[in-house]
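Thread: Newbie trying to understand structure tokens

Hi all, I'm a second-year student working on a class project, and my supervisor (Dr. K.) asked me to get a predicted structure for one chain before our next meeting. I've only ever worked with sequences, so writing a 3D structure as a token string is new to me. If someone could post the tokens and maybe explain what I'm looking at, I'd be very grateful. Here's the chain:
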Amino acid sequence: MTATSTALIASAASDDGSFHPPGLEEFFPPGIFFLDTPFEMNRIVLVRLLAVAVLLLLFYLGLRRARRVPGRSQALAEMAVEFVKTNFADDVLGEKVGRRYMPLLTGTFFGILAMNLTGIVPLLNIASTSIFIMPLVFALAVYVAFIYAGIKQHGGFSFFRNQLFLPGVPWPMHIILAPVELINVFLVRPLSLSLRLMLNMLVGHLLMVLCFSATNYFFVTGEDLGVLSIFGVVTLGAGVVMTLFEFVVAILQAYVFTLLTAVYIQQSVSEEH
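---
Reply by user tm_fold:
Sure, no problem. This is what the structure looks like when written as tokens:
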């Protein structure tokens, strides 16, 4: 059990020994550094910075001395980049366009993956993307690239025309459909990208803490439970399963977010969407 988990689990038991499930207050911890300034940092901000630092360090160590015949660390780094190139850049965007947006796709996938995985890392134990602002930052970066790619490919007027006016639709219908497309493409999409990522990581964290909090209650803090304490075995097993499930969800959410990034860019550079 991690130190962070222990603190969260302990908060689930009140002074009278009864059980209280974890709540959303866990995602808004008190500040640690630069208190009462615009640069105030709490535990989640520090976890984000640590995730980025570790990610950059791993790629630096893998690629700092690139050779024609790669060593083990270089081969792993190249395999990671090749995964993004094959699954997102080449398959969705094509080789020419995909090469242009490889840095964005690579940074998006591994950045989200690293921040998702902090939810199951001992002593960190919270996903850095479980707070809305971080998924929103990724989504806004995607949409800046989406608009930039479309304007670069078609020019401003043609890009917005392609996005707002559906082909094959009678012109009078555009009076209704154009505002709907405007809201859908430029508001709903970035919000849905953000919310999908945030909610998956938030709910997963709450379920894990709930399972381990219940285990702590049945085994440690609960009073006069008697035979009911056997349920601690069930909640402990559920916590382990949820941890493994969170690991899969962390990878899947990074994959889906990056895939949608590539799809949206492809739609912006195509003649019709």
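A couple of things are worth pointing out once you decode it. Residues 174-221 form the longest helix (48 residues). The longest strand covers residues 31-33. Feel free to ask follow-ups in this thread.
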